[in-house]
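Customer escalation, tier 2.

The customer says the design service returned an amino acid string that "doesn't look like it belongs to this structure." They asked us to rerun it and document both sides in this ticket. The original structure tokens are below, unchanged.
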């Protein structure tokens, strides 16, 4: 049995202008000890997918279809009271922007211990002891539990967020752009730390990012999202070496290849669609160099191009022939 199976998930937002199909028929799975990267431009539905798993959606958002199976149990059907038993204990989220996510007037140790007291019914003394151990685990001296957030650097704050996510020994950690606003060296340290912890504790790990380049050595599998849908998913090798969707190809070209021939980086022309006015057919066709009339008329189905490598594109065979 898979650790996590998301099947045909649909999460919509109802706002004054209409209905936003933020996540529309999304499916992916995750095993114990496995890392999945979800990548795409801002507004493509990455974070909404993560918030749906933990049912932390704002009041305008609602899961309207699909299943979220955690070891066979459908989290999507649980009430607000029932899902609280699974947050932190089974699924934790490490949010982006640690400088904004931490309470500035609470000591670090108290913030980590709060979840332990609430979910494990531990005494405050035992919870603070574990908080110190968790800080040591993320390579921060345990005695710093009495420091406030402003006394930490950006990278150390992000490590504190990781310690908080680990507080109740979850089965899955979701990192929502955990390296945002950090310099390249600190980004590498955070990603190496997450990789070590995933291996050490055999956790499932979902890494959400707009930067495809950081997923190559971090994740076993990658799902590429555009306009609320997964347009390509497969192993990291599939995505980088056997690219099947024009959008994925454009994302790869946005970043330099330090090993290959020197080339100019390329941006993606145009902008993602207004989610209230998604164009008919394939939503990427207005920006796609391969688009034909069929792309403007009908939404492509996800085709299993190779074993475990799915591509939702009418023109995927042309992409293959070019490699």
């Amino acid at each position: 049995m898979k650790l996590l199976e998301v099947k045909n998930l649909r999460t919509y937002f109802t706002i004054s202008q209409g209905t936003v199909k933020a996540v529309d028929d999304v499916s992916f799975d995750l095993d114990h000890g496995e890392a999945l990267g979800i990548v795409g431009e801002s507004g493509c539905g990455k974070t909404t997918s993560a918030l749906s798993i933990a049912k932390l959606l704002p009041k305008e958002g609602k899961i309207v279809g699909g299943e979220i199976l955690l070891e066979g149990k459908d989290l999507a059907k649980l009430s607000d009271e029932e899902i609280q038993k699974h947050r932190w204990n089974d699924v934790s989220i490490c949010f982006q922007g640690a400088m904004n996510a931490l309470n500035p007037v609470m000591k670090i140790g108290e913030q980590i211990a709060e979840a332990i007291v609430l979910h494990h019914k531990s005494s405050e003394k035992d919870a603070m002891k574990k908080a110190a151990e968790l800080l040591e685990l993320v390579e921060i001296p345990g005695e710093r539990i009495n420091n406030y957030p402003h006394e930490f650097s950006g990278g150390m704050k992000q490590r504190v967020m990781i310690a908080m996510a680990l507080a109740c020994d979850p089965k899955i950690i979701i990192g929502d752009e955990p390296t945002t606003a950090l310099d390249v060296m600190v980004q590498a340290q955070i990603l190496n730390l997450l990789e070590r912890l995933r291996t050490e504790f055999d956790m499932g790990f979902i890494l959400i990012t707009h930067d495809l380049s950081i997923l190559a050595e971090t994740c076993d599998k990658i799902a590429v999202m555009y306009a609320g849908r997964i347009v390509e998913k497969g192993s990291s090798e599939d995505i980088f070496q056997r690219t099947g969707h024009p959008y994925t190809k454009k994302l790869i070209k946005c970043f330099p290849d330090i090993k290959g021939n020197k080339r100019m980086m390329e941006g993606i022309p145009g902008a993602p669609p207004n989610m209230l006015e998604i164009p008919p057919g394939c939503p990427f066709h207005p920006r796609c160099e391969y688009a034909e009339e069929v792309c403007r008329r009908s939404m492509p189905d996800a085709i299993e191009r190779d074993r475990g490598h799915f591509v939702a594109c009418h023109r995927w065979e042309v992409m293959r022939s070019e490699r």
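Tier 2 assessment: The sequence is consistent with the input. The chain has two domains: 4-90+172-322, 101-169. The domain at 4-90+172-322 is CATH 3.40.50.300 (Rossmann fold). Sent an explanation to the customer and offered a walkthrough call.
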